[in-house]
């Protein structure tokens, strides 16, 4: 392998340098920005053979004003109609007035939301969903991320049948990535850098590619220099790889959730630079045109976290995919446990939060007064148990930056040869370890603060280091400050499975309520997202830091980025088992069969809360994915384009704004009588009711479709609200009778608040509606009731 890898390194493309400023005295150019333009594609004059010709023509430019012909970066024609271009701000203002331009929005940067987990979700070899779906062999999962490292065993096509004949995609060749890198497993690989290049360098892709200064390693091809994309792709659909581990941790057989599903990689994110909306939209457009069945997007947040759907390219691109039958899973974000931090809020998305699994990587710090404190670590070098080392906390004298071990913040003379205590926050956890190492420190203790509580994730640190919870960290810092000669040792364990309780809502997992449309509960559900083993790039060490020279075939990461591909793989299996199900039906099956208890039988807990404090649907949505049950959910809550248009009308969008999302003319019906349409009326698997002002009651409707084996089934309703919620819930009818001629049945849910609870300051109320039948199906929907004052 040495020679091929050396060849790949020779083909590495370094990140381009920033363009030089204009020479003194020269005329200063008007600032340029990249914009995405949504165009009414039906307005194209017949004289132009394609939309691309039209957009680049003088005729298109002159219709908007006096600007020169455009040079589009991307032309969109599948999930979105329009183009992106880097143009002067004044020209953008002119183009907004073009008669065919429906909307324009500025390009934005979005961050990435950065094996045992399939079994933890209820999958078993040769049984149930894996067996029925043939491990997903006929399904293609498109992954929008940082690309892929194709040589990994997790992307082997051994024993796979031919690529599905309907596949229309291909492999983009480029530095380090010949077209032959694709196979029957990795069926497609493309890259999109035009938006990235224009945003960071203000130049074309060709000019950026020739402007190298060696500042950072990257490949101008689908090859993954970051590792995130390889990890997410193989989490969703990695092939079986025996003898997998990360430096001995989590050893065993690694496999994705849908291990025979095919992977198509769309590189829309770039190492250290994030992901540009225009490139993300191009990735969606290509993936759907190529013929993927599922799209996995571990991206979100940024400045567009609560933008209206008609200004959110992820929401727009996903709508175009869903309207063509493609399931789209997205990560909820890592800004938890802050309330209202969840991102990717559109109701046609499956928004995935993160939970723990029953596996841990214990480590321990022993203070010289005999106190033993537990933590976690993935450090694979030598322990410090041979001798005690001095403890030092930079925050006592160095201020906030020093307490967090930020770059250039700690004095080498004070930390040399010591165990340095660093507070978590403001910089990557592993970067703090590199700061300590470069300053001469011997080891590190990473201490949580209030924001993370006792939530811990393992990291493959570059020096002996472990993470501890807030309480343990406070004890260590107190000892370091009060003892006359504070010393300690650090030891590292191996891998422990069967940990209880699990799952637990990860402290970092973003939380509801939905800050854009509170009538839609987000996240939809949680999936394994803590300490997940999957394949890794050959271009970076396990920390991803420039100074980490180690290389590993597999890495262990945490984040909702890791939870999202679990849902994508789950959707691939369900699509294979039930090819006629819509994306909404698949999401419904995952939601209504999710579990809300842990492996001890108690309610799901919140890692960021005090022990014994139960999490709520605002933390975990419908619950934790349980694939053993999702195969046969009994009932589903389906939805299609008409439902989503009605939803956007209900939340106040104008027809022209809806058309930006749907690509079709839209009209909203006039209100009938005193009935005020609400986003709560969307046929969603969860029920989120918002009582505005002095309103004390609200009725919403749902329609259930029987997908069970028994076409003649009878379901009965059961409602359970948390004690003391001050809310009553009535369901009419209380019995649903299905037959071969009546596969759908509707019902109404009326939520009524007591006078003591009906105020804007009241805490949300929680509960569940469960439809049960004698064959054993329990179709569960979370109920959340909130009070808001009208704007």
From TrEMBL:
Residue stretches making up the Peptidase S8/S53 domain: 136-602
Domain Inhibitor I9, first and last residues per copy: 34-113
Residue ranges constituting the Subtilisin-like protease fibronectin type-III domain according to the UniProt record: 681-785
Signal peptide (from-to): 1-17
Molecular functions (GO terms): serine-type endopeptidase activity
Record keywords: Glycoprotein, Hydrolase, Protease, Serine protease, Signal
A Pfam short name: Inhibitor_I9
Domain of life, source organism: Eukaryota
Active site feature: 145 (charge relay system), 228 (charge relay system), 561 (charge relay system)
One Gene Ontology term from the biological process aspect of the record: proteolysis
Domain PA: 390-476
InterPro entries listed in its UniProt record: PA_dom_sf, PA_domain, Peptidase_S8/S53_dom, Peptidase_S8/S53_dom_sf, Peptidase_S8_Ser-AS, Peptidase_S8_subtilisin-rel, Peptidases_S8_3, S8pro/Inhibitor_I9
UniProt similarity note: Belongs to the peptidase S8 family.
Entry-linked PANTHER family: PROPROTEIN CONVERTASE SUBTILISIN/KEXIN
Protein name, entry field: Subtilisin-like protease SBT1.6
Organism this protein belongs to: Eleusine coracana subsp. coracana
């Amino acid at each position: 392998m040495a020679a091929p890898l050396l060849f790949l390194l020779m083909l590495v493309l370094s990140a381009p340098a920033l363009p030089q400023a204009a020479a003194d005295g020269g005329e200063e150019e008007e600032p340029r920005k990249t914009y995405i333009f949504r165009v009414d594609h039906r307005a194209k004059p017949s004289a132009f053979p394609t939309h691309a010709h039209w957009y680049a023509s003088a005729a298109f430019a002159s219709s908007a004003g006096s600007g020169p012909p455009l040079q589009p970066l991307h032309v969109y024609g599948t999930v979105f109609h329009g183009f992106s271009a880097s143009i002067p701000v004044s020209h953008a203002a002119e183009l907004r007035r073009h008669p065919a331009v429906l909307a324009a929005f500025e390009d934005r940067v979005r961050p990435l939301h950065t094996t045992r987990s399939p079994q933890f979700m209820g999958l078993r070899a040769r049984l149930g969903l894996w067996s029925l779906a043939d491990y997903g062999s006929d399904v293609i999962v498109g992954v929008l991320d940082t690309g892929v490292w194709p040589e990994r065993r997790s992307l082997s096509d051994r024993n796979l049948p031919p690529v599905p004949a309907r596949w229309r995609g291909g492999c983009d060749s480029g530095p380090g990535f010949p077209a032959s890198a694709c196979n029957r497993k990795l069926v497609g690989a493309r890259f999109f850098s035009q938006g990235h290049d224009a945003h960071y360098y203000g130049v074309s892709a060709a000019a950026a590619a020739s402007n190298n200064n060696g500042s950072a390693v990257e490949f101008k091809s689908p090859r993954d220099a970051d590792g995130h994309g390889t990890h997410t792709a193989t989490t969703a659909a990695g092939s079986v790889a025996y003898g997998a581990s990360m430096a001995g941790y989590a050893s065993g057989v690694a496999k994705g959730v849908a291990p025979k599903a095919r992977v198509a990689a769309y590189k829309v994110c770039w190492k250290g630079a994030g992901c540009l909306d225009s490139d993300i939209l191009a990735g969606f457009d290509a993936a759907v045109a190529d013929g993927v069945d599922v799209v996995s997007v571990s991206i979100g947040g940024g400045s567009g976290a609560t933008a209206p759907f008609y200004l959110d390219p992820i929401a727009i691109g996903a709508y175009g995919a869903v309207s063509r039958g493609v399931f789209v899973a997205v990560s909820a974000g890592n800004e938890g446990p802050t309330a209202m931090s969840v991102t990717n809020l559109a109701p046609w998305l499956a928004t995935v939060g993160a939970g723990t699994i029953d596996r841990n990587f214990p480590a321990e710090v022993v203070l010289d007064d005999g106190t033993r404190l537990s933590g976690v670590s993935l450090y694979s070098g030598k322990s410090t148990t041979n001798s005690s080392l001095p403890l030092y906390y930079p925050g006592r004298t160095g201020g906030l930056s020093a307490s967090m071990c930020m770059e250039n913040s700690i004095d080498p003379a004070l930390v040399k040869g010591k165990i340095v205590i660093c507070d978590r926050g403001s910089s990557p956890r592993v970067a703090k370890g590199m700061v300590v190492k470069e300053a001469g420190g011997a080891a590190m203790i990473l201490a949580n603060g209030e924001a993370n509580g006792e939530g811990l994730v393992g990291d493959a640190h570059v020096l002996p280091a472990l993470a501890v919870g807030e309480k343990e960290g406070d004890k260590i810092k107190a000892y370091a400050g009060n003892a006359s000669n504070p010393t300690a040792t650090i030891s590292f364990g191996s891998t422990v499975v069967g940990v209880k309780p699990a799952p637990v809502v990860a402290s970092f997992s973003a939380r509801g309520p939905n800050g854009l449309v509170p009538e839609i509960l987000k996240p939809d559900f949680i999936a394994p997202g803590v300490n997940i083993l999957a394949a890794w790039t050959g271009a970076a060490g396990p920390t991803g830091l420039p100074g980490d020279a180690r290389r590993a075939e597999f890495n262990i990461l945490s984040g909702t980025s890791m939870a999202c591909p679990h849902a994508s793989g789950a959707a691939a299996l369900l699509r294979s088992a039930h090819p006629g199900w819509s994306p909404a039906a698949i999401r419904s099956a995952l939601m209504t069969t999710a579990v809300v208890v842990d492996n001890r039988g108690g309610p799901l807990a919140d890692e960021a809360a005090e022990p014994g404090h139960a999490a709520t649907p605002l933390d975990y949505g419908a619950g934790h994915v349980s694939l053993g049950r999702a195969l046969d959910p009994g009932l589903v809550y389906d939805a299609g384009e008409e439902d989503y248009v009605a939803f956007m009308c209900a939340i106040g969008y104008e027809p022209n704004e809806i058309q930006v999302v749907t690509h079709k003319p839209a009209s909203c019906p006039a209100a009938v009588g005193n009935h005020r349409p609400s986003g709560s009326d969307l046929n969603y698997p969860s029920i989120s009711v918002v009582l505005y002002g002095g309103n004390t009651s609200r009725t919403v409707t749902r329609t259930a479709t029987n997908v069970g084996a028994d076409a003649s089934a009878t379901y009965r309703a059961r409602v359970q609200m948390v004690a003391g919620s001050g809310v009553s819930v009535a369901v009419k009818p209380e019995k649903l009778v299905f037959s071969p001629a009546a596969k759908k049945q509707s019902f109404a849910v009326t939520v009524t608040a007591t006078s003591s609870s009906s105020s804007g300051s009241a805490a949300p109320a929680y509960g569940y509606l469960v439809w049960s039948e004698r064959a054993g199906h329990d179709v569960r929907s979370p109920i959340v009731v909130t009070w808001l004052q009208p704007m």
